Amino acid sequence: MISLVFIPLFCLYHFHKIEAFKNYEALDFSLPNKEDFEKYKVWDLRKYKIFNFNNQKSKEEQKLKELRLFMHDLVKYYDTINGAKIQFGPKTDYDTFVNVIDIVSEEKIPTWVLFGNNMYIIACARPKKRGFVCGTTEYSLRNSRLMEEESRKIELNVFQKSFLKQQWLILLGYLGIVLINIFTLVKINKNQN
């Protein structure tokens, strides 16, 4: 009974405790220099809706919710006319800045620029079906990384499904052995009483 039930459960607990199943991720982050920023005229590319943060996070919760909804709509509708300009004032705390970065990451904003105390959020046009992407080298690299990541996730999902389809009989057998052992232990304990 111990080897069939408790050792696998102990191993799962141990793997969870040492975070063996944790998936680590990183944020692709770079700062533009002034020449590139002026060359591409980022401040003039879109009609920007301005979000001004100049307080602690607890006082900026409503603005953060509005920002999340606005960014969600930008990405969802592939809005190439509008954008968001986020201004960080001198009283903005670090937690507010991190929440804005989290929102950008969670809403999968394709293009955003942090320059000085301002962050410019830009959505891209609806992607075309072909694989060739024109633009700057940095944009092409970022886009190819995103495409590789998406294909990796799809391949992992397909692999996991096929693995479970192949091994379902083993998992079912293990569950059956565990249930038989529990039933036998209960029956033996009843007979001893």
Q: What would you say this structure looks like, in words?
A:
The chain has five helices and four strands, in the order H-H-E-H-E-H-E-E-H. The model has no long low-confidence stretch (mean pLDDT 82). Helix 3 (61-76) packs parallel to helix 4 (94-106). The relative contact order is 0.11. With 193 residues, it is of the alpha+beta class.
List the helices and strands and how they pair.
Blueprint: H1 2-17, H2 34-39, E1 47-53, H3 61-76, E2 82-88, H4 94-106, E3 111-115, E4 118-122, H5 137-192
Parallel strand pairs: 1-2
Antiparallel strand pairs: 2-4, 3-4
Please state the average pLDDT score. Answer: 82
| Form type | elongated
Q: Number of helix segments?
A: 5
* Largest β sheet strand count, sense and barrel closure: 4 strands, mixed
Summarize the model shown.
With 193 residues, the chain is of the alpha+beta class. It has five helices and four strands.
Features:
single chain; 193 residues; alpha+beta; four-stranded mixed sheet
